[in-house]
Structures are given as structure tokens and as C-alpha cells.
């Protein structure tokens, strides 16, 4: 069996089903087998309605009196009904699952698996999963439940897996470090377990496999990087001290240490591959400036890639003021740059030493004479291909040094395990004089009383305000206030303030104009979607309101909040919630702490690593099986990877493994 063949090779999957599976990312036989159950239902446990007790229950019955409605304040649909068996009835309710209205035939019986609990004074089943009695095999004690994708519901997927039951035996081995057949057995047992213990053992194997691949990919990346040649950048302490003497401030200890690590890396003839992590406002740009200066003084060229034109322009302004007087020709290259051809000639002939730009840097006709350092700001904003495009602009046979910067901290626990091979510098402290941002959680209805006076005072004191909304336009189905509606409202409530809005559907030039006006204080209140999230620096902005705060992840909220508190003035963040519910733990943690590393650890605990990787590596890696609480498995995987890498020449033998690793290598690489 070739796991990379199309799912159509399997019994019961024709072109139509294959097309449906493909829509959900299941293309190959491997994708199909690795689409693992989310949990298991045990229909043999089914009890009669007369017998049920609070807690997890399975009941079997017909559904009656289905109706649906919308919750008023919250953006939520509610489907309600009654389940009847021959001993009685029980109330059932689903939230945000409006498809339930059409799912049931009144004359058929279904299993309902869910929590029987008290809600608004009445007992009932809340959001149970369901399966038609006619659809499930009751001979299986445990029935897997798969994530439903539209028309492809769990029972349907299970039927397909069942059709291929006898094909599992053909699944080839993958890892050289486990017994033959381990993979095949684990996949079979996770889809068809005889007991929960068996399912857990299967999951452990699959988690091990996943971590093994990831860790191996990281090691191989490092090995490959070490084979490349880079130009050494000789470091001079005196020179850098003279450079620093011109700054209006002293470096923080963390900046000093990080730059030292960078200088050491760049003296080597293997390319630097370093991630500079520092919370918003920790001063990453200055560290990058020092690295750029050292390279340029030694005759090399430097490229700094930023995710937006606004950010590139801000960097250009700051850095050219600093470097140009020292004789380092610095230029800006963004989409709107005029006379690009001329500029590109100067880059090609080496006249320009330091280019700061956006995606416009990546075009094929941007060529360098001796590109020796690539700096990528907010590196998670770029895909692997984009980053590689820039890396390949170095002259033949040489690789540039790479400094990637991010404000999304990788929790330390992840660093040590998966990213054990990454060179990381951390800016773990803020420049002196910063005042911590004061964060409060408020309900929308309290805003006039608690928030408006603050906004009024802020604007009056000549400082600026960000107001973040979830949606651009009003949508009758959503109860969030849109950017446009909020702007209109604020204009009414603060007639003297200069208020504009910004969102991702505006043209780049318009966005740049608005952002430019905000930076130069021609705007007092900027109402915006999360497009302002990345790196912009307007130190005069001291108040940020994040509306519908519950709808954002912790990391994103932290990033957004980091738009304020960037100067020496006291700053405030208001997390606004729509409903009456008590604020989530996410919001409470955010109120408590401004430490990005702490919050990243919390986020990891609350949401698992997938999201964090997503933020770190541009939506790439999604850990499906393993969890970072699997510390024993992680350790075993690391040790085993070390063992097989002792004979690197053997690696070619593991063809399928190497092929799978290549995907992971793309994801775990910095370049
Ligand atoms: P980020 O890490 O978010 O990219 P920046 O590099 O934009 O942060 O720095 C934020 C602000 O702090 C800038 O205005 C910068 O000039 C200032 N800054 C950087 N280093 C120091 C320092 N050591 N002392 C005081 N201010 C600093
Ligand atoms: Mg920055």
C-alpha cells in the first residue's frame, strides 16, 4: 500500500466522496488513516430516560418538538427539542448547531451522548453528540467520534473507515526505533479500540511518532545549515561602543546579551540562524540595528523585511537617521517606492548597504551584490517560501546570516523540547522608564460611565486612542459592533475628536495614509480591526479599547495591547465584553500580567500548542496528536532521534520517513 495514493484507492470512496474529503484536507490514504477520532461513544452504556442521572449519559430515543431561536444579546443560535423513549422524555438543547434542525427523521431512533445537567432551572441534555441507531454498529463497544465537517459527519466518516478495516494490515512501518507493526497496530487500535486503555496506548505511539518527526526535522535542518558557507563578520568592541555612545539611551542588559550572541554567531563562517524573541516594546529593532551596522561597516549588504509598508517606513525613518550619518547608505523599498529601477541598480551594484522593505524586496529583479545579513521582522508573518526567496539573494554558494525577530514568545517548555536546536536570544526585560499598562475588563453597557471619561481626558491631554473592533461592516447576524458603526457612534459622542477608521479591506495606499496620519497625530481616535496588531510604534497612543475581547486569543490580545505603553506615559487597556457572563480565564490572566512569556505559558495550557505554532510559523504546524504535557514521550523521542542521528548515513534508508520529514523541515526551519 502506498500511503500517498489518493483516498479513491480505498473501497467505498468514489470521486464524489473523495472530493468531499479533499475539501477537509484529506487527500491521501495517509491523511485518511491519520484523521483520528476526537473521542469515543459507548452505546452499550445507553440507559433509559427514566434512569438517567446528572453527568455524562447516553440515551436512545426519537426526537420531538424541535424548534430554533436566536439568543438576544449574544451571537448564538439555539436549537431545542425533546427526546422520547418508552420510559419518558428529556429536554435537549444545542448551541450554535443550527444544522440540528434538519438532521433528524421523526420516525427514527438516535443515540444522544452528552451531559445531563441543570440549566436555567431545568434538567436537560446540553449539546449532545448524536448517531442514528441505524448507522452504528452496536457490536463495537466503543464507537469513535470524528470531527464533523459539514455534510461529512462522524457516522459517515466512520462508515468509510470501517470499509477499509482490512486494509490497515498493509500500513507500512515508518520509524526505525520501534517494533515492526507498531504503526499499523496503533492506527487500527485508535479507530477500533476494544477498550479506552487500548486507545490511549495507540495515541501514545502516534504522539511519539509525531514528536519524533518534528524533532528529527529540527536536527536535520541544523545539520544542513551547518554545511552552508557564510561570510564572517569580524566584530570590534570599540567600534560598537562608539556606535552606542550616539544613542539617547543605554542598552538594556538583555539587548546587550542578545547583540553579543549575534556578533559571535556572525563571526563564524557557518550562517547565523537566530531567533530574537522579545515582547512588544522590548527594543528588538535596536539589536537588529547593531547587527546591520556591523555587517555594513564590514562591506556587506543587509536586507530587513517587514510585513507591512507602515512598519517598513517606521523602521526606515528610525534606522536611516541612525546609520546614514555613519556613512551607511540606507534605502526603503516598498510597493509605493518611486524610481524602483534606479534603486534596484544601486542595490545590485552594492552602493546601497542597507535595504528596508516589504514583499517588494522579494521580486526577482531585486538583486544584491553581497547580501550578508537578512533580518526578518515579525517573522511569523511570512511564509517559508517568502523567507527563502530573500535568503537566496546572496551571491552563489554563500548563505547570508539570518536574524528572525518575533514578539510571539515560544513558551520555554516548548523551546527546550521541540525547538531545542534553535538558537534563541531573548529580550526578557523592558527598557527603563516604561510604566506597566493598566488593564481592565468592562462590559459594553458600562462604557459611557467608566470609559468615556478616560477617552475624553486622553484626547484632551493630547494623547491618542486605538479602538479595536472585530468586524468591518455591520452584519445583522452578528451582534458585534463593526468598525464603521463604532466610528459613527464615536463621532457622535466625541464631536471634537478627529476620528478615522482602518481595516484590512482598504487599499494599501489608504491604509498607509491613515496609519501615517495617526503616527503624526492628525488623528485622535483610530477605530480599527486587528490590522494594527503588528509592530507599529506610536508612543503617543496611551489608551486601547478592545471590543468583543472574548473573541480573540490570548496571544493576539497581548499583541494588540502592546500598541500602547510604548513611551514613558502611563497607558491603559480596556477589554470590553458584550454579554453578562463572567470574564474568561484568558481575560483575567491578561489583566493580571503583561509578561508575554508568562502569557504564552498560560496560552499553551489553555489552548494547546497548535495555536502557538500557528502564530509562530504562519499557520503551518498543527500538532494533531501529541501534547506538551507528554514530557516522557518527548524525552524518549529526543533520545531516540539522537541515537539514529549517530549514523547519519543510515538516514537515506528510511525513505518514507525522510519524505515525511521534509514537510516538517519546511515548518521548523527559520530560513
Ligand atoms: P519591539 O521589540 O516591539 O520591536 P522597538 O524596537 O520598536 O520594540 O522599541 C520600542 C521603543 O523603545 C522604540 O521607541 C525604541 O527607540 C525604544 N528603545 C529601544 N531600546 C531602548 C533602551 N535600551 N532604552 C530606552 N528605549 C529604548
Ligand atoms: Mg518591532
Description:
The chain is of the alpha/beta class and 671 residues long. Among the domains are: 43-141, Nucleic acid-binding proteins (OB fold (Dihydrolipoamide Acetyltransferase, E2P)), CATH 2.40.50; 237-267 and 282-406, P-loop containing nucleotide triphosphate hydrolases (Rossmann fold, 3-Layer(aba) Sandwich); 438-593, P-loop containing nucleotide triphosphate hydrolases (Rossmann fold, 3-Layer(aba) Sandwich), CATH 3.40.50.300. The strands form 4 sheets. A 7-stranded parallel β-sheet has the order 10-11-9-12-13-8-14, with helices on both faces. Helix 17 links the parallel strand 17 and strand 18. The relative contact order is 0.10.
Layout of strands and helices, then pairs:
Blueprint: H1 15-23, H2 29-33, E1 39-41, E2 55-70, E3 77-85, E4 88-95, H3 100-103, E5 110-119, E6 122-132, E7 143-145, H4 154-163, H5 182-191, H6 196-227, H7 237-245, H8 253-267, E8 273-278, H9 284-297, E9 301-305, H10 309-323, E10 330-333, H11 340-348, E11 354-357, E12 371-376, H12 384-391, E13 401-406, H13 412-417, E14 423-427, E15 438-443, H14 447-450, H15 452-460, E16 464-468, H16 483-493, E17 499-502, H17 508-519, E18 525-528, E19 541-546, H18 554-561, E20 572-577, H19 585-592, H20 596-607, H21 609-616, H22 631-645, H23 655-668
Parallel strand pairs: 4-6, 8-13, 8-14, 9-11, 9-12, 10-11, 12-13, 15-20, 16-18, 16-19, 17-18, 19-20
Antiparallel strand pairs: 1-7, 2-3, 2-5, 3-4, 5-6
Bound molecules: adenosine-5'-diphosphate and magnesium ion.
Magnesium ion binds at residues 284-285, 377, 535.
